[in-house]
Every structure is written in structure tokens, then in C-alpha cells.
Design brief:
Layout: E1 5-9, H1 12-23, E2 30-36, E3 51-57, H2 59-76, E4 84-90, E5 93-99, H3 104-108, H4 113-129, E6 136-140, H5 143-165, E7 169-170, H6 176-186, E8 192-197, E9 204-209
Parallel strand pairs: 5-6
Antiparallel strand pairs: 1-3, 2-3, 4-5, 7-9, 8-9
Helix pairs in contact: 2-4, 5-6
Length: 229
Amino acid sequence: MSEPKEFQSKSVDEAIEEACSFFSCIRDELEITILAGGSSGIFGLVGAKKARIKAQPRVRLSELETMIRAVTERITAAIVDNPRVEVEHQSDLIKATIKTSDDMDRLLGREGQVLGAVEYVVNRIVARRWPSAVRVMLDADGFRERQDQELSALAVTLAEKAKSTQSPQSTKPLPSYQRRIVHVALQAVTDIQTKSKGDGPLKRVLIIPKAPPSQDEAPKSESPPQQDS
């Protein structure tokens, strides 16, 4: 299995061509990450920067998806009948959606506890078998989407409480992708700021009201211009 390799050239397209030549494959068979777009600088001389990419054959991703699908189906087969797993990539994680004609409540459990436990086991197995870091998120019956919507609504409620009481509010410990949902939900809310706090993979999001400006910091009104006598 090929590891991701970095390539540099005058442009992104030329860097991709070098990657294709190195791996002996066409562009569509590569998983490409653009690290820097590059620039020609002034008159093509001063300040020129090379384009940088990372590339690897997609076959690795296909192998990873196959492994995640097999592991998830094997574990969930003990809970529901004939589970089928669809795998898709989402930014920094891989989402595996479980489908079955059986009762989904058994797979979800109370507040998603069973699904969360299965997700933990799947991630531990994948971490042992795969050489690089991978984050797998399991979903079933649209649970994660509903959970994300509820989390966004809770974040807004906590922000309003933080502003009205002028005291920090906190979520429960959350994984990184859920903390990001809170940050994104509140990025347009004025008078508050958010930051993660804690150790390990689960951290809380603190929602902190911004202190109102003091009178000394308030902008002073300009005195009217004096008229010539």
C-alpha cells in the first residue's frame, strides 16, 4: 500500500502530472490534497512559490472502505438482521451509514448509546489494522443528522443564556466533529466567544459572554469643527 507523497511544481496541474507519473496512474485514480496553490511572484521572478500537493492512489481508500464496511457489518449483525453499510468520506472523517429492515431502536439504543458503543469498537479495530489515523462515524436512520440539529439548537440556547446571565455556559464532553458543530452554529452570534476545554478526545465547549466595553473604552464623539472667525 502506497503512503501519501508530496509533490512540488510550478503549478498544481504540473504537480499532479508528476504524481501521476510517479504512481503510474491517471488523475482520476489519485486522491489529491492541495497544500499550496503556488504563485508566479512579481514578473515571474521575485517571490515565486511552488505549488505543493499530496497524492496517493485511491486503491488505499477503497481498501479502507472495504475494511470499515466488513468490520461494521460483522459487529452489527449481532444486533440487527442483515445490516448493510454504506461508506462515504466527509472532510476529516469517514461516515458509515447502517441500513437494515430490522428494528432500528435496538441498534440506536437510548439516546444513541448502543450506536455510540459500536462506533467506539469499530474505531478501535480500524486503528489497530490501519497504519494512519482514521476517524469513523456511524449513523443509522438519520440519527446523526437529528443529533446535529439538536446540538446546534442547544448551542444557540446556551449562547442566549450566557449573554443574559453574563456567565459562561458549557456543553457536555463532545467528540471533535460535534464540537465543530457548536463552534459553527455560534460563529455568527455576537457578544460571545467559544473555546474547547479538557483533555483527551472528548472536550467541552465553553460559551463565554464578551464583556461590554467600559466607558473609558467607548468611542468618544468628535467635537464639531470650529468655524473660522
